[in-house]
Design brief:
The chain is an alpha/beta fold. It contains 21 helices and 21 strands. α11 (272-300) crosses α12 (315-324).
């Protein structure tokens, strides 16, 4: 049975194809449209999924959408009525879109699908709808390695739910309880994202990266004024301080008065105050997630935990849950945001609606996250020749040791190999890589390659069997969703003068023997690399280890600020030529920046900042 899952019309549209319970393909629309967080109907992502399975849309048995728009509309109307007459401007702005499109989403979806399939609406497969948090829960539990587990979903808001608890057992997902809008941990975090001057729904990563530079000075104010937090982790927000229910901003004047200033202007100077605010809200969110996890473990008598929803991308909180919650292990959906809802919706239909037996959990059903398109040598050559690019083709037995030498010399390499990753993290298919031992690598990558804030940390890719040699972690972390401390013996002591530094001045202190991936709090966001799921990237790291004695590489996503991760050879080459990367690898084709024609540099575009 072939089931297509779709996520669309809010943010991070995506499509996923499931065949008899196996995830065949999944991709976000942004990778094809080149519009970050693209929310439109995912026609290109659907086309890719069908191409990967060599089928047409009418060959599908069923199609399923990841939430229920009528229930969401009910929530919007009820919210506006509850807060009337406040919010009239927001109401008038939202209603035309709903009355024109979203209220008739079933009709709109069928129209778009029929257009894509070039068929009549009556010829389409049946269309189903799951609830938003049901899609999140299914995406967390069914691809997990656990036969029985608690499931915790945390995001901004679905239809009504912002937090939900489920018990996954075999092929069943049993709902237990929910916290409803407007009380939302995701929206609380996004409110601080907005207030500190970052973009909501994309700047939350920046907030998490900024937090270690600050002190938790505002925790008491947050807990006293903004949120009523119970011992079991449940909570209610004080809506007197927030504007997202009635306005077009996240916070209001009362919030700004509480913290002494209006929101920081985007691209404005980041001061110690913003760092302290980031640290404070990160501390509060970690405490809430940890309390919820402990409560869920006790209530459901579960040994294992699965996580999904946008808050599950907070890898610092995930690390604390792993170490402190009492669960034997946790598993986090790598595409935890709305994109992953496409996978969850399809799996929910297969297991819950059709009551199919659960597929063995011995292997990773997410396939390491490598669910996107790949490109043949012929396709790559067509583009390279059309671009007059200078390249050499090397087999892996020659390429890998040569790349290890290139990396050891301090060069930054764009790495394009195999199937593109699904989810927000680059996992060694569309990555920019470098030597983690190089103390200049973080600043070079941030300022000359990624064109982003200097404070943002980079992740290590480490051979799975070597992870405990470098980090305080005793299990796999294939999806870069766990933060753990760098091993003590690799850390360097700070001088008394260095210990007195505050804020961004902490950045230039060398903290370990792998400084490029060691954050200012001696932590790292870890990706374990496995021979079974990405043998080529694993092979490269093995060669780098043979050359240098270090089984770790710096890994950041192959994109610049404001753009999605690259998808095609064209995307990769243009990004390569538009930055100060030194080398580019596209499968077995090696390109040196110094050898490229002047015309290629002239044709590259300037990148948009978010």
């Amino acid at each position: 049975m072939l089931i297509l899952g779709i996520s669309a019309y809010y943010h991070d549209s995506a499509a996923a194809l499931v065949a008899d319970g196996n995830i065949i393909a999944a991709a976000q629309e942004e990778r094809f449209s080149r519009k970050k967080h693209d929310a439109k109907f995912p026609s290109a992502a659907i086309t890719y999924c069908l191409k990967e399975a060599a089928i047409s849309l009418t060959d599908l048995n069923q199609i399923v959408f990841y939430d229920k728009p009528l229930v969401k509309f009910e929530r919007l109307l009820e919210t506006y009525l509850n807060y009337a007459p406040r919010g009239i401007y927001s109401f008038l702005k939202a209603m035309p879109v709903w009355l024109k499109e979203k209220l008739y989403l079933k009709t709109l979806l069928k129209k778009e699908l029929a257009k894509l399939a070039e068929c009549k609406v009556s010829e389409l497969p049946p269309l189903f709808f799951t609830e938003h948090h049901q899609s999140h829960a299914a995406s967390a539990f069914f691809p997990s390695p656990f036969d029985r587990a608690a499931v915790l979903c945390l995001d901004g808001v679905g239809e009504w739910a912002t937090t939900s608890v489920w018990l996954g057992d075999g092929n069943q997902l049993i709902p237990h309880w929910e916290i409803h809008f407007p009380h939302s941990l995701g929206l609380l975090y996004s409110a601080f994202t907005y207030y500190i001057g970052f973009k909501v729904n994309s700047g939350e990563y920046k907030l998490m990266g900024l937090a270690p530079y600050g002190e938790p000075k505002y925790v008491d104010q947050i807990l006293e004024h903004l949120i009523d937090l119970k011992e079991d982790g449940t909570f209610r927000l004080n809506m007197d301080y927030f504007n997202y229910t009635v306005g077009l901003t996240m916070t209001n004047h009362k919030f700004h008065e509480l913290f002494g200033k209006p929101p920081r202007q985007p691209e404005g100077k980041i001061t110690q105050r913003e760092m302290d605010l980031a640290r404070s809200i990160q501390h509060v969110v970690e405490e809430i997630v940890l309390r919820l996890a402990k409560t869920v473990r006790k209530e459901l008598s579960a040994d294992y935990l699965c996580l999904a929803g946008g808050v599950a991308l907070n890898c610092v909180a995930n690390g604390r849950v792993l170490r402190e919650s009492g669960f034997k292990d946790i598993w986090i959906q790598p595409a935890s945001g709305d994109a992953g809802g496409a996978v969850g919706a399809a799996l929910s239909l297969w297991y819950q609606y059709h009551e199919m037996e659960r597929i063995s959990t011995q292997k990773d059903p997410m396939g390491g996250g490598y669910l996107g398109p790949r490109f043949t040598d012929a396709e790559i050559l067509d583009y390279l020749h059309a671009s007059d690019a200078s390249y050499q083709r090397l087999d892996d037995d020659e390429l890998m040791p040569y790349l290890a030498e290139i990396l050891e010399q301090g060069n930054v390499v764009g790495w394009f190999s195999g199937r593109m990753e699904f989810g927000p993290r680059a996992l060694g298919s569309r990555s920019i890589i470098g030597d983690p031992r190089n103390p200049k690598m973080q600043s070079v990558m941030n300022l000359k390659i990624k064109y982003r804030e200097s404070f943002r940390p980079f992740a290590p890719s480490v051979l799975a069997e070597r992870v405990s040699d470098y980090f305080e972690l005793d299990r796999p972390s294939p999806y870069m969703l766990i933060v753990a401390p760098v091993k003590q013996e690799l850390c360097l002591s700070m001088t008394p003068e260095e210990q007195q530094r505050f804020g961004i001045n902490k950045l230039n202190v060398k903290r370990s023997h792998i400084p490029a991936i060691t954050h200012v709090d001696y932590s790292a966001r870890i990706q374990t690399v496995h021979q079974e799921t990405n043998p080529r990237y694993y092979n490269l790291i093995r060669h780098f280890e043979a050359k240098t004695g270090c089984a770790v590489l710096v890994n950041t996503s192959f994109n610049v600020r404001g753009e999605p991760i690259v998808c095609t050879p064209k995307d990769a080459y243009e990004c390569f030529m538009g930055t100060e990367m030194d080398y580019l690898v596209i499968e077995n084709f090696l390109l040196a920046k110094s050898a490229q024609p002047d015309s290629a540099t002239a044709q590259t575009r300037s990148f948009i900042l978010d």
